[in-house]
Known about the structure:
2 domains, six-stranded mixed β-sheet, Elongation Factor Tu (Ef-tu), domain 3, single chain, SH3 type barrels
Amino acid sequence: MAPEGWVWLARVKRTQGRKGEVFAEILTDFPEKFAERRRLWLLRGAPSLAGRGDDSSGSAAPLGLELVHHWMHKGGVVLHFGGVESITAAEDLVGTVVAIPRAERAQLEEGDVYIGDLIGCALADVAGDEPHVVGQIEDVDRGAGPVAMLVVRPAPNETGANQGGDDDEILIPFAKEYLRSVNIDAKRVEMALPGGLADLNRS
């Protein structure tokens, strides 16, 4: 199934305990739904993981596993999958994205959006007279504070080069007061950003 056919629920950050459990960053607004999930899939090579130092392989097939047990822990979730019974086995899951097929995702309220749908969208600043593309959204950091931060790869300059280098990124608060529109089909997010915000939050 293509990457866009999946909905991301969590991202495995590290092992937890001695019996194969893993600690994962929550990427869903419905963490209570883990109680209803028995079958989950682990994805390698998700867009926001590629090239960022994680153990990723774009050619790896999704790995389907049974969720045996889970509990919330320190802002994240601890997951224990069937057949993963040791620290060594759990280490192989670090860096993967926990996902479900898009057809199984929970329905959203009007105006809400899935984090996975934002990945790969162009972020345009429409605050000025002429809209301009800030860059491409490559990740969403939900742990930076009360508001999720969009991790944006800056758009190239007139010469086609990234002025800040290959590691350059911009952090943009995904705040409702800035948001103007989200068009998932067109892969475009429009925000009215305060002057200088993009430069201030550039790495």
